[in-house]
Design brief:
The chain is 73% helix and 4% strand. It has 6 helices and 2 strands, in the order ββαααααα. Strand 1 and strand 2 form a beta hairpin. Helix 1 (28-54) packs parallel to helix 6. The termini are far apart.
Length: 209
């Protein structure tokens, strides 16, 4: 039987042909998402390079050693790293077609992700409250841009996580949801890798004299 379906119009009208099933290459989504992640790598590479150039331009104001609270940042880093582990547990439950287990671990991941965002917003609020705003120096402009861009990515990841949990709750672990879960997993682990770079390059090196 042909894989083409057609609809016949009335006399004198042209017939319209279309595929009975929309084509979707097996690895098409993964390849496309890897290309997106590579473009995101370029964005963060540019932001890291900018911070590398401007990170010591304090304009007579305070530097990282005076502003950064490493204990708070370490807790925040732990939140994000643990969320990556819990996402891994969710993927393991997905492999076993355990819908409820997958949702539970995704919910735990969301809690840690929101905890990370809460501490980051608190840090930003504290810095702005003491007058360390993005307009204060080139260092702070580069800092807020780099860390804020990462925070926006985590925010979008949390929103994506909620939407996907709703989809899994309604439709289960169908092939489409497994594919979406795989893409979100790559995105979430990518954010962890970027944050390790931020923690090392911005915070740890920032407190050095």
């Amino acid at each position: 039987m042909s894989d083409l379906a057609h609809t016949a119009g009335t006399a004198g009208t042209a017939r319209e042909y279309h595929l009975a099933h929309e084509p979707h290459p097996e690895n098409g989504t993964a390849l496309g998402f890897w290309m997106y992640l590579m473009s995101d790598c370029l964005i963060f590479a540019a932001l890291f390079a900018t911070y590398g150039v401007l990170g010591r331009n304090y304009a007579g104001g305070p530097g990282g050693a005076e502003l950064f609270d490493l204990k708070l940042v370490a807790i925040n880093t732990a939140f994000l790293l643990i969320s990556s582990i819990t996402f891994g547990f969710a993927m393991l439950r997905k492999q076993l077609n355990d819908k409820s287990g997958t949702l539970i671990w995704l919910a735990v991941t969301l809690v840690f992700g929101l905890g990370f965002l809460t501490l980051e917003l608190y840090e930003f609020y504290h810095l702005i409250h003491i007058g360390a705003t993005p307009q204060s120096s080139a260092f702070l402009s580069a800092f807020f841009t780099l860390v804020g861009t990462h925070g926006l990515h985590v925010t979008f990841g949390c929103i994506w996580l909620v939407v996907l949990m709703v989809q899994i709750s309604k439709h289960g672990l169908i092939h489409e949801n497994k594919r979406r879960l795989m893409c979100l997993s790559m995105f979430w682990h990518f954010l962890d890798v970027v944050w390790i770079g931020v923690f090392t390059f911005v915070y740890l090196m920032g407190v050095l004299p």
